[in-house]
Amino acid sequence: MRTRLWVAATRCTGRLVCWSLAIAMATGAVEASIAPDPAWWRSTWLVPWWATPAALLLWAPLRVAEKRAVRAGGTDSESAEPEPGGPDDRTAYDTAA
């Protein structure tokens, strides 16, 4: 149960990172191409650029804690199958002579 909380928190924070970066890139494109002149725009378009590193600073320790929880207690996933690309994943490339 505790592992699921770390996974959910990490996943939500990761989405926040992605969306804030996407919004930052969109506002940057608007700033570069249209160059809006309202006074509020000068401070508003920078908000997502500040939110992205802030979200990354929050996401990084959550990801570390999630990995520790998964390693310590195993996974709480519905299936017992290992993740693709994990240490138990043996593909033909790995076993080739």
Helical content stands at over 70%
Rg, Cα atoms, Å: 20 Å
Estimated structural class? mainly alpha
Total count of strands: 0
Could you tell me the mean pLDDT?
Answer: 81
Low-pLDDT runs: none
Number of helices: 4
Number of domains: 1
Helix and strand sequence: HHHH
Terminal CA distance reads 42 Å
Approximate strand percentage: under 5%
Molecular shape: elongated
The major pleated sheet works out as: none
Kindly list the characteristics that best describe this protein.
single chain; 97 residues; mainly alpha
Task: Present the secondary structure layout.
Layout: H1 2-33, H2 39-44, H3 47-73, H4 92-95
Helix pairs in contact: 1-3
Verbal overview:
With 97 residues, this protein is an all-alpha fold. The protein has one domain (2-75). The chain has helices at residues 2-33, 39-44, 47-73, 92-95. α1 packs antiparallel against α3. The longest helix has 32 residues, at 2-33. The chain is elongated and about 55 Å long. It starts with a helix and ends with a helix. 8% of the residues are buried. Residues 87-97 have a biased composition (Basic and acidic residues). The chain crosses the membrane at residues 42-62. Keywords: Membrane, Transmembrane, Transmembrane helix.
Summarize the structure.
Residues 87-97 have a biased composition (Basic and acidic residues). This protein has 4 helices and no strands.
